[in-house]
Amino acid sequence: MAVKVEMSPVEIKNKKPYLEWGLTEKEYDFISEKLLERLPNYTETGLFSVMWSEHCSYKKSKPVLREFPNRNERVLQGPGEGAGIVDIGDNQAVVFKAESHNHPSAVEPYEGAATGVGGIIRDIFSMGARPIAMLDSLHFGEIDNAHTRYLINEVVAGIGGYGNCMGIPTVGGETTFDECYSGNPLVNAMCVGIMDQKDMQKGQAKGVGNAVMYVGAKTGRDGIHGATFASADFADDRETQRSAVQVGDPFMEKLLMEACLELTSQHKKWLVGIQDMGAAGIVSSSCEMASKAGSGMDLTLDNVPQRETEMSAYEIMLSESQERMLLCVRAGFEEKVKSLFKDYGLEAVVIGRVTDGNDYVLRHHGEIVTNIPVSSLTDDVLEEPSEERKPERITQAESLSNWIPEFTDAKEILRKLLVQPTIASKEIFTQTYDSQVRTNTVVGPGSDAAVLRIRRTNKALAMTSDGNGRFVYLDPFVGGQIAVLEAAANLIASGALPLAMTDCLNYGDPNDPEIYWELHQSVLGMSEACRVLNTPVISGNVSLYNENNGEAIYPTPMVGMVGLVKDINKHLTNIFKNSGAKVFLVGNTRADFAGSEIQKMLTGKISGMLNAIDTEFESKKLFKLLQAIEAGLVDSAHDLSEGGLAVGLVESTFSSDVGLDIELKTMKAQDLFSETPGRFVVSVTPEKVEKFVEIMEDDCMEIGETTAKQKVHLKCQNADFEIQVAEAQKIWEEAIPCLMK
Amino acid sequence: MKIAVVVFPGSNCDIDLFEALHTVCGAAVEYVSHKRDNLDGFDAVMLPGGFSYGDYLRCGAIARFSNIMPAIVEFAKQGKPVFGTCNGFQILTEAGLLPGALKQNDSLKFICKTVSLTVENNQTLFTTQYKKKETIALPIAHADGSYYADEETLAELEENHQVVFRYAGENPNGSLNNIAGITNKAGNVLGMMPHPERAVEAILGNLDGLRLFKSLLENGKVTTEEAVR
């Protein structure tokens, strides 16, 4: 095989290949003139182009991300490591993070989704935690064409294929459908782990002379420039970008996870630091580990296990082959580590040493192919102030009055809402995920939040992942507030105290001032809600450039939140338990139709402004409800979201033995479908009503009771109808399977 | 006297079996590595679910060549209890300890849900605490669970009452004769696709699997003592 001749530094300066790799001319000049005071060679230019991509450097989003609160009394590890860590008592901690794999999933949906799952799992066990659950937030185009069906089938199969084989249950998430995602689906995966606090690890390489060890799968040419790929817009020629997508091997990762967990839990003395080789492969993991410890590093690339021949230094460093980890091992313990990994059938190889100072030195075929300061890759990236401008559509919407639905047949509207894909049952997808393996899943997919017991304690963890691009598109600030409130409400409905959150910020091209404004405003809204709820952002990920042929997706921040159920016997689901219980609506209902499911269904689009949210007021109400749930006063609780009250009431009867008799004296038929956030349907046994109302005060309204009749009777000022539970459940269950045919 | 839970590379329901037997039933249980070559001191062997060797090539096809397998075959020949669920069932068929094979589900998809089963034979080591023809519910979680055997073998299975569990109502994977679990002719080796170990605790919403382990503990005379791990 002929060896490709790489461009010389002068040729690079003249031919500017770095432009294709995502580096700008201004950045290149800054690197050569200010940082290195010489022209970078081919390998070095490649390192800068990936490390300075948005995916690795957050150069565009950093100023905005600083808005997020990320500390409180429970946070043990905030952003900056593989994942965030939160104290849950009993010397245990919960570890979680979410990551997007949008671009790879658009190009190669099965492997894109699968490797997204694989990557986020490595982030969790790199912290020393045992992954216990996966969630996923998926956003696709409308299910009206073969390509979208293909994307959905393959993404869902990829998530299941990886998680099922790993033996990590996929327990929750969301799937929504809107035209804006058709060319650029969103695939956000969240992993939750649990650990003893004494096993906490860091991705650091400190101690001169300590070994840098490579473990896991061999390095191939797959995924080169994946990080850069994730930081660029899509055009229709994206099929040619397929080589930037990696291929996953969950069996290899299962072995790697078990080996790493044995190392982190049983041989702490051997290990200094551990980090996943994720985006930008060896380069990002090694220079970040050196940077965090203030060390230098000297690596010999000939020692990197390779599965292809004649790989160049550039290819070895930038490869995003999956299932690899980088370790910093205390000098003298290398053989012990090798033997531990060999026991699992895995290779562990010393590829370099920690050095004094700040030099990042790479050797290949006896030559020094890179010699640059560590900090030039990790710290010196040019943060560019971005222009912001409020979109014209929002200025216009502010001057118009909001849309109010008009209809005559409320029952027909309800039936139609139940079959909207965003509302309809997602069981066709979730039943392809093993949601029970490890036998901790108390509440699996389909409820407001998943609940997993913590073995050998009386506690449980509740978790949810949520995002509503429609609200954020119409009003980024309020939409951001709602995204956080909604996640917290999901946890509280399950009986959990919200602890902290992670996010995936999915937006369009940040060089567009309107999109940057959306990003900034929504992060401000989210941050405000986080402060009020005391749910700091402990980890996260930014996915910009989600565009297809110049059309951006809705700005879609995904919020992943984890909560603590103090007494597992008090956890709740959304399903009514017994007949004869009193049904309450918690929270006031306003005319909130902008961005609602009924608006999209009746008008074919979304429009209008969102009503302002008083997060202090909302938070007080949420915590009152939690107090009532923790006191054992509530039988079931369901957070109302898409479709509003009528849909929420009907959903809570599914697969139960009860029906409903509801009378809403203060409401008109349209109010049944309003999507005012921060509302719940809860059921309370009659003898507990008094205590319940004492806690909730005027934040709740009794609206009826559960019956033994298997039908839902809804009466308001100008509508009075009945729907059979079995009939409603049937159309809700069959809607998506029918569309997927 | 104790139970072995065999751990192959890629097994992932090993912990579920261990916890069901040890924490819930109080039995003495030990994880046994695929590298071991004997089952000395064990009274029963359990093969867990999961994806042994990544299910590469064919589910269970590589695991049957692992170091521990000759010991398991010998153990079975001696008439001692051998149990395999899901991937464990697939390994038992690949190893020839049970007849037939598990094909890909008719839907071509992985399916995780609770299904209804009829207990067809309550005279095995594993099922005496169930009633004959009792309907129970157990979770399934597999992509390759469609039981297949030639007509002659099927007839023999039915004739000898080797079909222990049958899907009641909807057949989730297209298995012949709605087969969900079978024993060998001697009745000491049971393989089944459903996961009884996922249905042994009220907090997880299902107790129908508990009696399988209790039957074995009672019939297999497995003493309860402190677990090793």
UniProtKB/TrEMBL annotation, chain A:
InterPro entries: PRibForGlyAmidine_synth_PurL, PurL_linker, PurM-like_C_dom, PurM-like_C_sf, PurM-like_N, PurM-like_N_sf. Mg(2+) 1 binds at E99, N541. Pathway: Purine metabolism; IMP biosynthesis via de novo pathway; 5-amino-1-(5-phospho-D-ribosyl)imidazole from N(2)-formyl-N(1)-(5-phospho-D-ribosyl)glycinamide: step 1/2. Its EC number is 6.3.5.3. GO terms for molecular function: ATP binding; magnesium ion binding; phosphoribosylformylglycinamidine synthase activity. Residues 80-195, 446-565 form the PurM-like N-terminal domain. Keywords: ATP-binding, Cytoplasm, Ligase, Magnesium, Metal-binding, Nucleotide-binding, Purine biosynthesis. GO terms for biological process: 'de novo' IMP biosynthetic process. Substrate binds at S100, H101, N102, H103, R122, Q246, E320, S321, Q322, S543. Residues 208-363, 580-715 form the PurM-like C-terminal domain. It catalyses: N(2)-formyl-N(1)-(5-phospho-beta-D-ribosyl)glycinamide + L-glutamine + ATP + H2O = 2-formamido-N(1)-(5-O-phospho-beta-D-ribosyl)acetamidine + L-glutamate + ADP + phosphate + H(+). ATP binds at Y58, K97, D503, G540. Part of the phosphoribosylformylglycinamidine synthase complex involved in the purines biosynthetic pathway. Catalyzes the ATP-dependent conversion of formylglycinamide ribonucleotide (FGAR) and glutamine to yield formylglycinamidine ribonucleotide (FGAM) and glutamate. The FGAM synthase complex is composed of three subunits. PurQ produces an ammonia molecule by converting glutamine to glutamate. PurL transfers the ammonia molecule to FGAR to form FGAM in an ATP-dependent manner. This is Phosphoribosylformylglycinamidine synthase subunit PurL. The gene is purL.
UniProtKB/TrEMBL annotation, chain B:
PROSITE patterns: GATASE_COBBQ, GATASE_TYPE_1. One of its GO terms (biological process) is 'de novo' IMP biosynthetic process. One of its GO terms (molecular function) is ATP binding. The gene is purQ. Part of the FGAM synthase complex composed of 1 PurL, 1 PurQ and 2 PurS subunits. GO terms for cellular component: cytoplasm. It comes from Liquorilactobacillus mali KCTC 3596 = DSM 20444. Pathway: Purine metabolism; IMP biosynthesis via de novo pathway; 5-amino-1-(5-phospho-D-ribosyl)imidazole from N(2)-formyl-N(1)-(5-phospho-D-ribosyl)glycinamide: step 1/2. It comes from the Bacteria. It catalyses: L-glutamine + H2O = L-glutamate + NH4(+); N(2)-formyl-N(1)-(5-phospho-beta-D-ribosyl)glycinamide + L-glutamine + ATP + H2O = 2-formamido-N(1)-(5-O-phospho-beta-D-ribosyl)acetamidine + L-glutamate + ADP + phosphate + H(+). Gene3D superfamilies: 3.40.50.880. Its EC number is 6.3.5.3, 3.5.1.2. It is found in: Cytoplasm. This is Phosphoribosylformylglycinamidine synthase subunit PurQ. Keywords: ATP-binding, Cytoplasm, Glutamine amidotransferase, Hydrolase, Ligase, Nucleotide-binding, Purine biosynthesis. The active site is at C86 (nucleophile), H195, E197. Part of the phosphoribosylformylglycinamidine synthase complex involved in the purines biosynthetic pathway. Catalyzes the ATP-dependent conversion of formylglycinamide ribonucleotide (FGAR) and glutamine to yield formylglycinamidine ribonucleotide (FGAM) and glutamate. The FGAM synthase complex is composed of three subunits. PurQ produces an ammonia molecule by converting glutamine to glutamate. PurL transfers the ammonia molecule to FGAR to form FGAM in an ATP-dependent manner.
